[in-house]
Amino acid sequence: MSLLTLVLASFLGVGALRISYWSYCLLGNYLTARRMGVPVCLLPFDHTHRLWSIVDTKLLPFFNLLPFATRTSFSRYNWRGWEITDRYRAHHELGGVFAMVSPSRIWLYIGEPDAAAEVLRRGADFPRCSQLTEMLNVFGPNISTVEPSRWKVQRKIMSACFNEPNNEIVWSESLVLATDMLRYWAPKPSVNTVAEDMRTLSLHVLSRAGFGKSFKFQGHDERKASGSTSYKDSLQTILENCILILVLGPKFLAKPWLPRRVGNLQLGQVHQACVAFQQYMTDMYEEGKLAYSGPPSQTTTKTGSPFMTSLVHASQEEAKASGGLTESEIYGNMFVLNFAGHDTITHTLTFAIYFMAANPTVQDWISEELHRVLGSRSSAEWSYKADFPRLRRCLSVLLETLRLYNPVPLAKWTDAKTVSLRVGDQMILIPPKTMVALSYSSLQTDPNYWSDDSLVWRPSRWIRIQNDSGQASANNDANPPSTSPDQQQEEKEEIITPKRGTFLPWSDGIRDCPGRKFSQIEFVATMACLFRDWRVEPAFISKGESRDDARKRVLHQIKTDSAPVLLLQMLHPERSPLVWSRRQ
């Protein structure tokens, strides 16, 4: 037998063994899933596999050319982001709960509100999967990765950082940055850097709220490429290369045999940014300890403390009772605060701006509220305590955008035990090591809870109007009504509370997002600056395109060109430039 034949036979043998093992695991998981008594969809491999997630959307179009392809679970479900396209249809076809089975995992999808709320309420039975979150331990253990016993301590300390003085910081800094951003956009014939500029705004708000460092807004065209390891540059480099850092880790990036540059990516610069950011956190940590041991400064007393200082102080106080955070836990939580608070609000603001550009009636509706509440005062005079609670229509834009395009999916698992869960009239015994995915894209668009136009972006659905007898009714008009800008009208409007389990952008239960109000304040302040006196329209990109055609094009792009990268985002917003003009 020749060497070539032997090598070929070896490869075939290994391949046969792999296929046999793959088939064995798939069959085992299938039989386990069937015992739950729910519909089961088979997948040849897990849709979250790292290698597959790189090529899934590139290869599936070729697979879909096959005559039988469109009828398979593989083409419909086996790619990241399938939920955004499918919305509620899978659950309407398969029921409130169904399973997806691959050789490596069982995924249980929950599309029934009461069951979804129950999963979030029972945090001990449905914890986060450490296998999926451990990569967030880049700078240390944090609230997203620690075990339940440490989570309670971390949650208590973290919650103390999200306080009213810090909310004031978020409000005022967002107003300053959004005003400067509008000054940068307004003179341009068109703007195709909305996503990049929103990223800068979000970064600078976090810099001020997190570390007490303010930076002037610089538009995308004004920023200069630099290898600087200043605080701002290091944090920006880290946040722009999060996927690389999360997958490989800072220590791996320091390996001497790695190339310093791969294409446009400078690995050495990413590593230097990690080192510099770690040093800045260490310096801030030491400053926080000194500030805690001394008298409070007059500046801090008046304007509130940044997160790092608050985190150190809260940890020191907690240490007197039950032990505070370790130094590495403080670093880990500061990174997660920046990571979670940066991309989420950046992508949500980008979605919202493009939705607004395609919906001029919503812009008029928002501007009406802004003039009623803010009058002709300059943004420097706007008050967080007096004005923010009254900007309900601005908040409704955030809620409606998150309803359709929630950037962060929700997934739990059963860990090492069997867990029971009631879904409708059925009691299900969920086996150990089962991933439990809350089908947010279905729950948040199901017509049974969100009316027949559930797939339409309509912020006015969040406003309930009280009549003269005190009874409230939801606003179901296709277009937001034009209302007289008087105090009486404002007092009649209130934000609805959706059925529990049908709206989950900040999670729910004991492990809900502590940064909910932070994100709401930043969003509302930004929208107020942009839309009180200005409007936005899509720029024409082809000869003969009408205004209505341009708006439809933008809506189509939002629908077809949005997908998860690390989080759900518009992939190429620069393809639809926008034009800003002052209201007459």
TrEMBL record:
Disordered: region residues: 470-498
One Pfam family, short name: p450
Alphabetical UniProt keywords: Heme, Iron, Metal-binding, Monooxygenase, Oxidoreductase
Sites where the protein binds heme: 513
Domain of life: Eukaryota
Comp. bias regions, Polar residues: 470-487
Cofactor dependency: heme
GO MF annotations in UniProt: heme binding; iron ion binding; monooxygenase activity; oxidoreductase activity, acting on paired donors, with incorporation or reduction of molecular oxygen
Protein family membership: Belongs to the cytochrome P450 family.
Cited PANTHER family: CYTOCHROME P450, CYTOCHROME P450 12A4, MITOCHONDRIAL-RELATED
The protein, known as: Cytochrome P450
Species assigned in the record: Rhypophila decipiens
